Automatic annotation (TrEMBL):
Protein known as: AraC family transcriptional regulator
Pfam families for the chain: DUF6597 (PF20240), HTH_18 (PF12833)
InterPro entries: AraC_XylS_family_regulators (IPR050204), DUF6597 (IPR046532), Homeodomain-like_sf (IPR009057), HTH_AraC (IPR018060)
Keywords assigned by UniProt, alphabetized: DNA-binding, Transcription, Transcription regulation
Molecular function via GO: DNA-binding transcription factor activity; sequence-specific DNA binding
Biological source species: Pseudacidovorax intermedius
UniProt domain HTH araC/xylS-type: residue ranges: 180-263
Amino acid sequence: MHSIRRNPKTFLDRLVSSVWAQAPLPVAGPGERRELVLPTGSTHVALRFHGPPILVFDDAADRRGHGVEFASVGGARARYHVRDVSAPSGSVGAMLRPGACQALLGVPESALAGHHTPLSALVGSAEVDALLERLHRCRRLEGRLSLFEDWLIGRAQGRLPVLHPALQAVLGTTPGRFDRVGDMVEASGLSHRHWIAVFRHATGLAPSEWLQLQRFEKAIGLAADPSFAWADIAAGSGFSDQAHLANVFRTIAGVTPSQWRLRHDPGAPRHVRA
């Protein structure tokens, strides 16, 4: 088994939307040293087991990049970033729900958005080193993932996501109910400025960015079927027309829709060969 992706343990499901464990895989070819990582709109925690520190680049034009520690928190992003995949490593990780960072790490999502933060800066080096040591000692992928989940449960100590009641009510409604920020503001009962501040605090994104990513996610879900035409995908995912979808897609993903179809990983559609 090379990878696991599943729902978290019951005690975590209010804080975590999914967890994963990945065994190291060989790079498919010499030209695939970098990949585009498309945004999920969520904050994630990830720990790598071995290999050199991973290099992350702000965009395709960034040639210098910066190193990311073995244990890090990736803040919510509204557009793609690039990473070096020339030295693949095993890893475990978790996608966090809005408001979970405050409960698990003591800081809001807004403080982590748009960049990687060393996990040690949030919970201390001793705790991270102890967790990595336990993960190294365990050889089974499912065992490593279970250890990681147990660590998250210990961090949570029974706490729930820290969400403003208005945000909790809006995010708890039927997915796709809101197409415009104004509709969200009206449903929240808050002022426009207050709503944006509350939303960004708990998600790391502006409401407009979050809605755009919801449409983008629906589009790539439909586009996984190669028989779907892009005009139909645009109509089915809330874009005004195919040109609108193409413009937003390029901004978010760094590639055109056609390039995404040719270069994405079918098993992980948010990972695209650079």
